[in-house]
Design a protein that fits this description.
Length: 175
């Protein structure tokens, strides 16, 4: 397997963003690095090649960065999972709780055919709420979840515990 550990030197940590007390892991500094971006996509691709993936789903907004590059490598389609009221055709919507208030995600109803094998990607796994909502959307449409892929996992938040029945890949871990 590809060793992504050296990429940690390319991830910028920004204290107090977007709120005081939050340490934000900024991936833009990996994305702009030629070898760094290639290594991330290669590592995802190596893991999912041969697993008969039909669709890669990317979660708005940073899942839109990795998802299409991975889909291209897998000869799979790409499906955007979006914030409410962005998608033009009929959608399924799932609402989920945040620290303060709620948020929601949508997918086009015809984006997944029953039984299609789906990988969902996002940049970072924190509490897992965002991914859990997306998993629920895929289940509503009858997709088969072949994997959940993250560039970064914040292990101490234990988001992974929400996904025990799934194949969870995180390329980098922070504790
Ligand atoms: P969760 O729903 O797992 O608590 O939060 C994960 C979502 O919030 C992901 O969509 C991710 O893009 C965003 N997120 C939360 N914290 C960070 C962070 O430190 N860095 C980045 N890049 N995204 C974050």
């Amino acid at each position: 397997p590809i060793n992504c550990e050296p990429l940690k030197t390319l991830i910028r940590t920004v204290p107090d963003f977007p709120k005081p007390g939050i340490l934000f892991y900024d991936i833009t500094t990996v994305l702009k690095d030629k070898a760094g971006f290639a290594t991330l996509i290669d590592a995802f691709a190596q893991y999912y090649i041969g697993k008969e993936i039909d669709l890669v789903l990317g979660i708005e907004a940073r899942g839109f960065i990795f998802g299409p590059a991975l889909a291209y490598r897998l000869n799979a389609g790409f499906v955007p999972v979006r914030k409410p009221k962005k998608l033009p055709a009929p959608t399924a919507r799932v609402t989920y709780d945040l620290e303060y208030g709620t948020d929601a995600l949508e997918i086009h109803l015809d984006a997944i055919q029953p039984g299609e094998r789906v990988v969902i990607v996002d940049d970072l796994l924190a509490t897992g709420g965002t991914m859990q909502a997306t998993v629920e959307l895929v289940r509503q449409l009858g997709g088969e979840i072949a994997g959940l892929g993250f560039a970064i996992e914040l292990d101490f938040l234990k988001g992974r515990e929400k996904f025990q029945q799934y194949d969870v890949l995180s390329l980098l871990h922070y504790d």
